[in-house]
Design a protein that fits this description.
heterodimer, A: alpha+beta, 12-stranded mixed β-sheet, 12 strands, about 20% helix, globular, B: mainly beta, Immunoglobulin-like, Ferric Hydroxamate Uptake Protein, Chain A, domain 1, 26-stranded antiparallel beta barrel, 5-stranded antiparallel β-sheet, about 65% strand
């Protein structure tokens, strides 16, 4: 048996080494810049009454002045839908509470989100009036400085680092002389913190899958959209089903219960008073 | 783009008295900045910061360059001079001191890829949580020395890997190991985990509440945990690992290679392994998963009637004591026909010669005397195994089907040379087993989306066994000749089917199941001293036994969830119809039917997402195992003549349990504790007699037998600072039994206590350290004696990373055994030097059993016996070898 080893070892070295590579789509953006992938851990309370903060990951992909910010699970779902239909397993594995994506080009963003079965889009010019603070601290291994801004009805404190001189951040935040490592609103309802930064050979800096085609998507503005989103999210389960089927002849009958099997109570709960969206300045309108 | 900064003075008075002069002196400044690289190409998106100091404590203004590398900064300041810095992610930072006047500034930046790298590695994330899936990022959790993916998996909090490669998550064996989402190897996953290089894997996904069949997703609750290895893109077409070693005593060798071919529609893994270095390969490819519970319940137990010589040492790594020549080859292929249908083929060949030397002293205590068996043995076992399998799986959203056809042939040749109480005894055991099984599982939906699962299993089994012992034994019974021969032939046909259905009723989840199986089996045995069985051709020396066993199990499981409570009831009705026919003795012919009701209830309370507690009760009525349902003599091992009861033994057992678990994934802390209290009652009591030659004879007496006890186990697993893994477990148990020994009735009380501590530190610094310490205490008490034994073992590894390419590993295993008569301590030391000339290759020089120890000792006490065993060790060994990743 000892002599069987010799052919075994020779075989090892004869094994092939042909590489294969995945094809990459072409993106827009500055040619000399590199691609970066920043992963943020978002910690947030979707309802004021939530006992615990919800934690989800979100990706910021960027190159130069072009970027896309999208929830990790939804990005995965979009990627799958480039190749095939989503299956139940995909949806449960890559579930995300929010579905929006934010594409930036220079200081203009395009915001995509779904309400019911409909997809909405609006454009917005961003020019945050940052107030630089005088504090510094180490977050995730980076020396960070603080800065303040008001946006969407909330006051935010950001921690950015000069060690990564990239003008970018999570959600709609950018405009600081370094990458935003952490940003928290004054009520501690929303917080984004970097957990991973990588450079990549290529990234697609657009939302890769849309529920509706460009011409069918509802074009709106930030204010109208936020009002609509607030109303939809405030609806009870029954009202949402009715709203989603408003153009159909008959409503679909869906039986859905809470874990205790209480059908009625769950279906009729309204969330308007407890809802805690990231942008709340529509409420005064 | 320009952004202005306003600083706020905190003290109004200061502003009033001192501020005005400064305001009067402040001036508007405009800076026109151009940023270019060394070949004067504009650099877009660089950041310019104007500050009052070199340290940039107070930023006065900042901006980013446009696509032409230009921008204008306008601000007010009262300072005379300013610090201006220019940054870009892939260039070196430049800082200049300028006069506080409007001016044009040109920055020429130098590229700096190193700076970029430094920034990028700072933030590390070890895992990502996505619902019930936790993805561990291999590059972040693996240690410098980890070579195969198994070593990285073992660093995941809550995971423990057994010696045979079985992976357990929180104490429960995983149900599947996927490679890129495909279950190529099923239960034989240790081929992959021990063959895939750690560097080839991107993520390890731990999938909790896992459902393999898609039809179950969203319909069936699952406690299963599965792992998925996400292979990095850009691997070679064929990739894997190879290892070779060669050394002295001449010729000590090892060769292993596991090439993998992974494409979207075809996966193939080949594993070729051979060694005589003390590494057993007999478990390679064997199933490490529990499989379908109903299908398992239908299937036939293929145990040998005659025990094979023991070639297993205890409490010490194989490489110190196992003399072996082992060869194994496996090939597994998966072909994906489309997204839902696939075919798998597996081939396995295993050939091993394993040997061990053992010298043991076992003392049995009865009320009048001590009886001692001294045995020095050299056992050799040669095993040849061939296995061929064909599997077909259709895994669709609304339908699941799997068919599994397996043919297995196992041949064993065992030799045991003994000096038993000064008598030389030579025992040879041969066996050849042929087993063909075809099993199918089908899942479908009926009655408005309810899942119905059915299974079918058909088995053909044949086992021929032969034992020859020289000189002859049990001569009072069998006559005095040169040789004792025991033959045993089993032929069996077993067929079974089951159906289960899940449904909801009264706000509860229900699962009804029905199993039906039929076994028809013939056992022919013969024991004789001399050339043939002419002297002992009558029963019970010779037996020809037929068995027909019809079994049905009807169970109805219901789960009620209310608030944080979960109540599970799982009562079952078991029906057995047993018909036996002993051709040579009509006294053992009977036809009996039994109907048992087995209640089973569990109540659990979930305090929050981390804490879970509960209690359970289980009552089981069970019958003698089919393999023991014959009444002729059988020489189980050369010194143990056995006779099973001439009746069916009914055992009634009650188990009361409480449990507690804590699971905090984010903080990597897992705690588990179980307490079980049990009592059993059976219809028979075993009687063992020992003669002066050290020969045992066991038979069953029709006297009711009682046993009871408790078992407590607890385990804590914690990962600290990402890379220090701590596992601690403790156990206590008591088992009280009744037996007859040398015609005396004995009540035994056995108490066992154990603690285990495992710790591993490897923080990417100059050292890595791991320790595994176990302590066992056994106390066996009868009305007239008490014996206790203690055992402490320590296993330590210290890695010294002497440079980026070299590492020294020191290993030590130390075992200490203590009894009233003697204490023993043995320490085995090994050392290896590793040199890594490239990422894909490392070279190794190893020295094993440095101090050339010849024996090690262990001890164990049970019931009225205490034994001390001394195992022979492999001699000092020096080897040179390599590991290569391709």
């Amino acid at each position: 048996m000892k002599y069987l080893l010799i052919p075994l070892l020779i075989l090892t070295f004869l094994l092939g080494s042909v590489n294969y590579e995945e094809s990459q789509p072409i993106e827009r953006g500055a040619e000399n810049e590199k691609y970066y992938s920043v992963l943020y851990l978002a910690t947030f309370k979707p309802h004021l009454t939530s006992k615990n903060h919800r934690k989800e990951y979100a990706n910021l992909y960027l190159k130069g002045n072009t970027s896309i910010f999208q929830w990790y699970g939804i990005r995965k779902q979009d990627s799958i839908q480039l190749h095939r239909k989503l299956e139940n397993e995909d949806v449960s594995k890559y579930y995300s509470l929010e579905q929006y994506a934010i594409e930036f080009y220079n200081n203009q963003l395009t915001y995509y989100d779904n309400i019911g079965y409909d997809e909405y889009e609006y454009k917005e010019k961003i020019n945050h009036q940052w107030k630089l603070g005088d504090k510094s601290k180490n977050i995730a291994g980076y020396n960070c400085k603080n800065a303040f801004v008001d946006y969407g009805g909330r006051s935010w404190e950001a921690w950015y680092t000069l060690e990564i001189p990239i003008n970018a951040g999570p959600y709609k935040f950018k405009g600081l002389p370094g990458l935003i490592i952490k940003i928290t609103d004054s009520t501690y309802s929303y917080d984004f913190e970097v957990t991973e930064i990588k450079n990549k050979k290529k990234l697609i800096l657009k939302k890769t899958y849309h529920e509706m085609s460009d011409k069918d998507r509802y074009q709106t503005n930030r204010s109208s959209f936020n009002l609509l989103k607030h109303r939809f999210k405030s609806m009870s389960f029954n009202e949402r089903i009715s709203y989603m089927n408003r153009n159909k002849e008959a409503n679909q009958e869906v039986v859905f219960t809470d874990e205790n099997g209480n059908e009625a109570s769950f279906r009729d709960i309204k969330f308007s008073k407890t809802l805690n969206l990231i942008e709340i300045d529509h409420e005064s309108k | 783009m320009k952004i202005k900064l306003f600083r706020i003075n905190k003290h109004i008075l200061t502003v009033f008295f001192f501020g005005i002069p400064f305001f009067c002196l402040s001036q508007n400044i405009e800076l026109f900045v151009t940023v270019k690289d060394s070949i004067t190409k504009p650099i877009a998106f660089s950041t310019i910061i104007v500050s009052d100091s070199k340290e940039e404590n107070n930023i006065i203004a900042f901006a980013s360059s446009n696509s032409k590398g230009q921008f204008t900064l306008a601000f007010e300041t009262a300072l005379d001079s300013l610090w201006v810095s220019c940054r870009h992610i892939s260039h070196k930072t430049i800082q200049k001191k300028i006069k506080a006047t409007s001016q044009s500034i040109n920055f020429i930046m130098q590229e700096s890829p190193d700076q970029l790298k430094e920034v990028l590695v700072k933030a590390k994330k070890n895992f990502t949580v996505k619902g019930d899936t936790i993805s561990y990022h291999v590059d972040n959790i693996k240690s410098e020395k980890d070579y195969t993916i198994e070593e990285v998996i073992s660093r995941i909090p809550g995971i423990k890997i057994e010696d045979n490669g079985q992976i357990k998550y929180n104490g429960k064996a995983i149900s599947h190991l996927y490679i890129n989402g495909l279950d190529l190897l099923e239960g034989g996953y240790n081929i992959a985990t021990r063959g895939i290089p750690a560097s080839a894997v991107k993520d390890i996904d731990v999938m909790r509440k896992h459902n393999h069949s898609r039809i179950d997703i969203g319909r069936t609750e699952s406690d299963d945990v599965a792992l998925n290895l996400e292979i990095k893109k850009g691997q070679n077409l064929v990739f894997g690992t190879a290892r070779g070693d060669i050394g002295d005593p001449f010729l000590t060798t090892l060769g292993e290679t596991t090439p993998l071919y992974l494409k979207d529609n075809v996966q193939n893994v080949t594993s070729l392994k051979a060694n005589n270095i003390g590494k057993s390969l007999k478990n390679l490819g064997e199933s490490l998963i529990s499989g379908d519970i109903h299908l398992n319940s239908l299937q036939f137990q293929t145990d040998n009637l005659i025990q094979l010589p023991n070639v297993t040492g205890v409490n010490l790594s194989n490489l110190y004591w196992l003399d072996n020549e082992s060869l194994a080859a496996t090939n597994n292929t998966l072909v994906k026909i489309n997204e839902t249908d696939l075919i798998k083929i597996n081939l396995l060949y295993n050939n091993g010669n394993e040997q061990i030397s053992n010298s043991s002293t076992t003392t049995f205590i009865d009320d009048s005397s001590n009886n001692t068996i001294n045995n020095q043995s050299r056992n050799i076992l040669e095993t040849e195994k061939i296995e061929i399998g064909l599997k077909n799986e259709l895994n669709r959203d609304d339908f699941y089907f799997k068919n599994n056809l397996q043919l297995k042939n196992i041949r064993n040749q065992g030799v045991s040379n003994n000096i038993l109480n000064s008598s030389t005894i030579n025992n040879n055991v041969n066996s050849e087993q042929l087993h063909l099984v075809n099993s199918s599982i089908l899942k479908n939906t009926i009655f408005d989306d309810k899942i119905i699962k059915s299974g079918l299993s058909i088995e053909l089994h044949q086992n021929e066994e032969l034992s020859k012992t020289t000189p002859s034994l049990y001569t009072d019974l069998l006559g005095n000749y040169n040789t004792t021969t025991q033959t045993a032939t089993q032929k069996a046909f077993n067929a079974g089917a089951f159906t289960t259905i899940n449904f909801n009723l009264f706000s509860m989840n229900w699962k009804a199941s029905q199993e039906l199986s039929f076994l028809t089996r013939t056992i022919e045995t013969s024991i004789f001293n001399g050339p043939n069985n002419s002297q002992t051709s009558t029963f019970p020396f010779t037996g020809n036994h037929d068995l027909n066993h019809l079994k049905t199990i009807t169970s109805l499981e219901s789960i009620l969830k209310k608030d944080n409570w979960k109540i599970t009831l799982r009562p079952s009705l078991n029906y057995h119809d047993i018909q036996t026919d002993e051709v040579l003795n009509d006294d053992f012919d009977f036809n009996k039917s039994y109907l048992f009701f087995n209640p089973d209830a569990t109540i659990g309370y979930k305090w929050n997402s981390k804490w879970y507690t509960g209690a359970s009760y289980r009552r089981r009525l069970s019958l003698t195992d089919d393999n023991n349902l014959f009444n002729s003599f059988i020489l189980r091992s050369f010194n143990n003549l056995n006779r099973f009861p001439n009746e069916i033994n009914v055992t009634r057992s009650n188990n009361y349990g409480v449990f507690l678990s804590y699971s905090d994934i984010l903080n990597s802390l897992f705690i588990k504790a179980n307490l079980d209290i049990f009592n059993n009652q059976s219809d028979f009591t075993f009687s063992t007699s020992l003669d002066q030659d050290g020969l045992l004879q066991t038979e069953a007496l029709e006297i009711p037998n009682k046993s009871n006890g408790y078992k407590f186990t607890t385990n804590i697993s914690k990962t600290i600072f990402s890379l220090i893994k701590l596992d601690a477990s403790a156990g206590a148990e008591q088992f009280n039994t009744e037996q007859f020994f040398n015609n005396s009735f004995i009540e035994n009380q056995n108490d066992r206590y154990s603690t285990t501590l495992e710790m591993a530190i490897d923080q990417g610094t100059w050292y890595g350290f791991s320790i595994l310490s176990s302590y066992f205490y056994n106390n066996s008490k009868t009305s007239f004696s008490q014996a206790n034994s203690r055992f402490l073992s320590n296993k330590m590894t210290l890695d010294l990373y002497t440079s980026s390419k070299t590492r020294i590993q020191l290993g030590m295993e130390n075992i200490n055994s203590y009894t009233a008569e003697q204490n023993n301590s043995n320490t085995l030391v090994n050392m290896s030097f590793y040199y890594k000339p490239s990422k894909k290759l490392f070279l190794r020089l190893s020295l094993n059993n440095i101090f050339n120890e010849e024996f090690y000792s262990t001890t164990f006490s049970n019931a009225n016996s205490i034994s001390i065993s001394q195992f022979g060790l492999r001699p000092r060994q020096i080897t040179a070898g390599f590991n290569y990743t391709f």
